[in-house]
Amino acid sequence: MSNQINKKQRNGRDVFVGVGFGSDFNGLAGWPSGRFDTDQNVLGYTDFSSLFVGSPGGHGKCYLALGGFPPSPPHVMYPFTSPLTGATFDRSDLSSWSGRPEAYDISVDGVAHVGMIPDFVEALRVMGISDQELGPLWYGAEAYIRMWKAPRRGD
Predict the structure, then answer these.
(1) Domain extent listing, the chain
(2) Which of 127, 128, 106 has the alpha carbon at shortest distance from 118?
(3) Predicted TM-score (pTM) of this structure
(4) How far from chain centre, in Å, is Cα 77?
(5) DSSP conformation class of 128
(6) What is the secondary structure of 11-61 as a DSSP string?
(7) What pLDDT tens digit does each residue of the chain (155 aa) get?
(8) CB 36, CB 65: distance < 8 Å
């Protein structure tokens, strides 16, 4: 992606657009769970609209996926390739460390550990977030550095 995607004009000056991304693993915040149920534990949806000011734009859905994923809605297919770096990612296998025999799958397990953040971003892409819309996320760290350098330059 080109840095041109992130350049915007404000008061006649170029500004670099980026958003911060932070995790709270081992903290109080939760992480997204899987969208597909392969054990038939959950079926249906949860209405979160009363928790937000305005409408969050949808429900937290869990789709039944016994015997395989349904053709719709889309799910992350492994291995996937990062649109930013071209690196290929497969399901994370931590069996030697965790004792879990299966590899993790974002569509079923959700974000089970910090190493699944690339899977989470791929899940956003699969759900329809475009590469251009993800641009500010790719450049969040650069925007943060530029923000702290600006006072030194007098911007």
Answers:
(1) 19-138
(2) 106
(3) 0.71
(4) 15
(5) T
(6) TTEEEE--------TTSS---PPPSEESSSS--EEE--GGGSSS--SS-EE
(7) 444 445 565 666 667 778 877 777 776 666 777 888 776 654 445 444 554 444 444 445 577 777 777 777 889 999 999 988 899 999 999 888 888 898 999 998 888 888 899 999 999 899 888 888 888 888 888 888 888 888 876 65
(8) yes
